C-alpha cells in the first residue's frame, strides 16, 4: 500500500484559490490511479478528480473548469489546484490511491489507500 499525507487545506473566501498537495510514500511503483475525494459533514465521500500514470484525468462535473489535478513525479506529489472556490466546496479533502492496475474511476470503493485528509472551508 501507499502512505499518503495531504496538506494545503485552509479557510478562504468564495472566489479564492487553494492548492492541495499529497505526498506519497511508497516502496513500489506509483499506483496506476490516484485521486482526490471530499466529504462534507452529513454527506458521502465523493470523487473530485483522478489522474492515471499515463496522465489521463477526469473530474466531477461540479469542479470541471475550476479544479486541476497535477503530479510532480520526481517529488511523489499529487496536487489539486482549486480556483473560483464556492461555499459548497467546503469539505475534508482526501488523497487516495487505487489498487487497480488498469481501471480508474471516481468510485471511492475502488481505492484502498487513503490519507488523513485536509480541511477546506469556503465562506461566502
Description of the molecule:
This protein is mainly beta. The protein is 0% helix and 51% strand. Strands 2, 4, 5, 6, 9, 10 and 11 form a seven-stranded mixed sheet that branches. Strands 1-3-8-7 form a four-stranded antiparallel sheet, with no helix packed on it. It has strands spanning 3-7, 11-13, 18-25, 33-39, 46-52, 57-59, 67-72, 77-82, 91-98, 111-114, 118-123. The protein is globular and about 45 Å long. A hairpin with a 4-residue loop joins strand 7 (67-72) and strand 8 (77-82).
Features of the shown structure:
seven-stranded mixed beta sheet; mainly beta; four-stranded antiparallel beta sheet; globular; 124 residues; 0% helix; 51% strand
Describe the secondary-structure layout.
Elements: E1 3-7, E2 11-13, E3 18-25, E4 33-39, E5 46-52, E6 57-59, E7 67-72, E8 77-82, E9 91-98, E10 111-114, E11 118-123
**Run of helices and strands:** EEEEEEEEEEE
**Distance separating the two termini:** 39 Å
**How many helices?**
0
Major sheet details: 7 strands, mixed
Helix content: under 10%
Question: Could you give a quick summary of the protein structure above?
Answer:
With 124 residues, this protein is mostly beta strands.
Amino acid at each position: 500500500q501507499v502512505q499518503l499525507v495531504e496538506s494545503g487545506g485552509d479557510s478562504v473566501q468564495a472566489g479564492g484559490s487553494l492548492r492541495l498537495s499529497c505526498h506519497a510514500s511508497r516502496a513500489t511503483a506509483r499506483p496506476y490511479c490516484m485521486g482526490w475525494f471530499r466529504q462534507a459533514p452529513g454527506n458521502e465521500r465523493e470523487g473530485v478528480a483522478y489522474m492515471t500514470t499515463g496522465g489521463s484525468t477526469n473530474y466531477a462535473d461540479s469542479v470541471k473548469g475550476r479544479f486541476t489535478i497535477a503530479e510532480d513525479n520526481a517529488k511523489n506529489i499529487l496536487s489539486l489546484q482549486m480556483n473560483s472556490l464556492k461555499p459548497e466546496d467546503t469539505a475534508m479533502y482526501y488523497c487516495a490511491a487505487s489498487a487497480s492496475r488498469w481501471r480508474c474511476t471516481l468510485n471511492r470503493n475502488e481505492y484502498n489507500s487513503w490519507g488523513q485528509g485536509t480541511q477546506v472551508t469556503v465562506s461566502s
